[in-house]
Design goal:
The structure holds two protein chains of two kinds. Chain A is an alpha+beta fold. Chain A is about 20% helix and about 45% strand. In chain A, the strands form two sheets. Chain A has a five-stranded mixed beta sheet with strand order 2-8-7-4-5, with no helix packed on it. Chain A has a three-stranded antiparallel beta sheet with strand order 1-3-6, with no helix packed on it. Chain A starts with a helix and ends with a strand. Chain B has a domain at about 30-80: LysM domain (Membrane-bound Lytic Murein Transglycosylase D, Chain A, Roll), CATH 3.10.350. In chain B, α1 packs across α2. Chain B is α+β, with helices and mostly antiparallel strands. The chains are: A alpha+beta, B alpha+beta. β6 of chain A pairs antiparallel with β1 of chain B, so a sheet runs across the interface.
């Protein structure tokens, strides 16, 4: 026989055990299948990087990928001259190639060509110039602008 | 044979240019051209695009700059759309 005090303690202990059991049930794993992991923040950031200039490379031939086959800084009078511009990032940008001829302190504009891009990732854009009656021998430069900001340049010569 | 303008620098007025990209290009590449005395859109189209009838392509590309295709002025800088590479 339990005394009233002992009976009360036993009931309280039993309630306590049941309560602990209920609490454990509430803390049980919620789902059989784990929730899909959230997208990695780095990947999200890459998507939102705006278009940025990387390199400009000169040559007299390009491939299907718009990249120069053999980089060069010296050309012949009859060459078509290509400037291959690599960019990273996504979105819209206006690329401009400004070609100049330089003799001492004098600079003459040869050509200025623009190309608007709307890109979803790394891209290569080529600019090219040719002169049907041949390039004058001398020193030249191509400057690449992105949204009217100078981002790169290359000097070259025609021999 | 390369002609020499009066300042002693070579003449690059006949240089041909183009551009293309692996990215999408919302509009064709274009070059800039500064209108000279005696120019008309059809003369520029003939010289730059090889077809005088292509003047309307130039007009279309410069609607903001050229309201009336018969009224262009020396010193105006316009866009010449370039054929795809």
């Amino acid at each position: 026989m339990l005394t009233p005090m002992a009976r009360t303690l036993a009931v309280l202990a039993l309630v306590g055990l049941m309560g602990a059991g209920c609490s454990k049930k509430e803390e049980a794993p919620p789902a059989v299948e784990p929730a899909a992991p959230a997208p990695a923040p780095v990947a999200q950031d890459l998507v939102n990087i705006p278009v940025a200039f990387q390199t400009v490379t000169l040559g007299n031939q390009i491939g299907e990928d718009k990249q120069v086959a053999m980089p060069a800084s010296s050309f012949t009078s009859s060459d078509t001259i290509y400037a291959s511009v690599a960019t990273a990032g996504t979105g819209k940008a206006m690329l401009k190639a400004v070609w100049t001829y330089r003799m001492g302190d004098q600079v003459t504009l040869v050509n200025e060509t623009m190309q608007e891009l709307d890109t979803a990732g790394p891209a290569t854009t080529e600019f090219h110039i040719n002169k049907p009656d041949g390039w004058p021998v001398g020193q030249y430069r191509v400057e690449i602008f992105m949204n009217d900001l100078l981002v790169g340049s290359q000097d070259y010569e025609v021999k | 044979m390369t002609s020499q303008p009066s300042n002693g620098m070579p003449d690059f007025s006949n240089v041909q240019s183009g551009a293309s990209s692996t990215a999408e290009t919302p509009q064709p590449a274009f070059k800039t051209y500064t209108i000279q005395p005696g120019d008309s859109l059809s003369k520029i189209a003939k010289r730059e695009l090889g077809n005088a009838n292509a003047w309307n392509l130039i007009h279309e590309a410069n609607k903001d700059e050229i309201k009336d295709p018969n009224k262009i002025y020396p010193g105006q800088v316009i866009k010449i759309p370039l054929p795809d590479a």
